[in-house]
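About this split. The held-out portion is used to measure sequence recovery: a designer receives only the structure tokens and must propose an amino acid at every position. Recovery is the fraction of positions where the proposal matches the reference. Here is one held-out target exactly as it appears in the evaluation file.
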């Protein structure tokens, strides 16, 4: 038995010794030299003098009860009934008023003369005929007046008869001058006023701003042709296209916040309220239009693009992590960061996940612990200092 066991052990050892070695591991697909953790790249240490020049201020991360919002793009429009397209009541030639034609963007007042319009004859094809008839009547009136004047010198007619023929002569000459003026305008398009023609004055229907000027001085326009547009800009609306599936989530009673996307000094965030307007929608984008009226004095222009933060009623105002809006900075790829104060003159860039913007607050889905001090003024300067873009 001892011999058999020794033989089996020797055979098993030989089989194990003859088994092939495992293949070598494949080379790595990529090699990263000098790897550095993200946290080690985001620490900025400032000297006391540099920190004073930057004027940094901090605020704690808070837990705030903020409503759920949706930020959508909008466009500023003129409310219905506040835009006044001016058209030509009759066919005629456009004349500039005293002081010249108004320019687009110029403010005008109610009753101010914007332009004048010299009417054309109802039937331009009969202008030659009207001139011929007026000339014949004028010659007849001149002959009649000459005969009556000779008789009046011999006291053969009354003074009243003489005055009658003189009035008929004056009327005939006025009619002839008007007919010749119409013929001249038809042939040359001249805009100058002619004797016997009283131009119509087109006045501003209300206080407002000239949006566009379609017709210029000297231009011949048809009846109903557009001349210019005057609009009141004291109250503007914002038109927002909302996805049809989200339209029922919009809180109709809550005011919205409009961001005019301008960095210049002044009020950037404006309040607006929902107003009733004719229903409209876009089937191609599966969206419906909602309108919001801006507060009075908003320095925006029709056609300007804005961002609108709309509260939703899908969720109550639950406590959520929030930081002041000025604490956010964006990197090249659109990532959002804040600078956390890690010590005296030491700041660490911390990545956050933005959930939304409500007024002056940025709601975070992920970020520093509540109570952590973050930079609210000067965060962009810190970002530039870190990457060498600041001066």
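Reference sequence for scoring:
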């Amino acid at each position: 038995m001892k011999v058999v066991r020794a033989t089996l052990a020797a055979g098993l050892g030989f089989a194990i010794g003859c088994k092939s070695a495992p293949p070598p591991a494949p080379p790595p697909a990529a090699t990263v030299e000098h790897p550095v953790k993200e946290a080690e790249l985001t620490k900025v240490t400032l000297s006391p003098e540099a920190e004073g020049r930057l004027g940094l201020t901090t605020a704690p991360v808070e837990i705030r009860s903020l409503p759920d919002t949706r930020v959508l793009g909008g466009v500023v429009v003129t409310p219905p009934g506040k835009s006044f397209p001016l058209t030509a009541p009759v066919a005629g030639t456009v004349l500039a008023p005293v002081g010249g034609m108004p320019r687009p963007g110029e403010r005008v007042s109610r009753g101010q003369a914007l332009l004048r319009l010299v009417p054309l004859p109802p039937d331009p094809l009969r202008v030659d005929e009207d001139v011929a008839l007026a000339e014949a009547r004028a010659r007849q009136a001149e002959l009649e007046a000459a005969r009556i004047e000779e008789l009046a010198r011999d006291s053969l007619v009354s003074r009243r008869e003489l005055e009658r023929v003189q009035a008929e002569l004056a009327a005939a000459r006025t009619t002839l001058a008007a007919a010749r003026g119409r013929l001249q305008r038809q042939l040359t398009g001249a805009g100058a006023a002619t004797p016997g023609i009283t131009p119509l004055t087109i006045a501003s229907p209300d206080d407002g701003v000239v949006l566009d000027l379609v017709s210029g001085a000297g231009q011949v326009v048809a009846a109903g042709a557009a001349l210019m547009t005057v609009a009141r800009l004291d109250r503007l609306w914002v038109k927002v296209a909302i996805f049809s599936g989200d339209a029922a989530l919009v809180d109709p009673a809550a005011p919205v916040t409009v961001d005019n996307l301008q960095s210049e000094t002044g009020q950037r965030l404006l309040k607006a309220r929902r107003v009733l307007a004719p229903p409209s929608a876009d089937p191609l984008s599966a969206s419906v239009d909602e309108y919001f009226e801006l507060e009075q004095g908003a320095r925006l222009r029709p056609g300007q693009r804005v961002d609108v933060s709309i509260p939703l009623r899908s969720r109550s105002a639950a406590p959520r992590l929030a930081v002041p809006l000025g604490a956010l900075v964006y990197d090249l790829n659109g990532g959002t960061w804040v600078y956390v104060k890690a010590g005296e003159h030491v700041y660490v860039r911390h990545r956050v996940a933005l959930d939304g913007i409500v007024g002056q607050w940025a709601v975070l889905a992920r970020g520093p612990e509540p109570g952590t001090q973050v930079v609210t003024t000067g965060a962009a300067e810190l970002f530039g200092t870190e990457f060498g873009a600041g001066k």
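Annotator remark: The first strand starts at residue 43 and ends at 45.
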